[in-house]
Hints:
Transmembrane segments: 7-25, 45-68, 109-128, 140-162
Structural class: mainly alpha
Radius of gyration: 17 Å
Membrane topology: Multi-pass membrane protein
Number of helices: 7
Keywords: Membrane, Transmembrane, Transmembrane helix, Transport
Subcellular location: Membrane
Organism: Oryza barthii
Amino acid sequence: MEMADELGHLLVFGFLFNLGVYMVAPAMTDVTMDALCPGQDECSLAIYLTGLQQAITGLGALVATPIVGNLSDKYGRKALLLLPATASILPLACNRTKAFFYAYYITRMVTAMVAEGSMHCLSLAYVADKVPPSRRAAAFGVFSGVCLAGFVAGTVAARFLAVQSTFQACPFDPRTG
Length: 177
């Protein structure tokens, strides 16, 4: 029963992590447009900046994920799972005012390199450590499905909620500064 409790916590963590990350990411494009091109319906600079951020994040994750994986072999999977959870919170603290707008993008790129790829890989490694080989494939499928549900729920929520509602859980609204 203890194994089921530990994996249940991991499932909740995986869902909430993906929900939070993928609910804020689409809304940030709208915030970027308001910061760079106030009052305009289209802003190609905001689209390019968001695309550049995603490209750099992907390339950085390609390098950072194996490093975090090696560290998890040394220090433990549970301890290193706190790294992506904590890192994904840091960029929001930089976005308090429009003066820190570019600091948000730089911080977001650096933390996403460590957080987004590592969270899923570390979680799957943790599942592999805790589940017997005969049940591992099913456990991987369940965990991946729960994470995908968080991704879908976050993306849908970002499109149906107003940007102000998306950031209501934060102590500030990045659109107003």
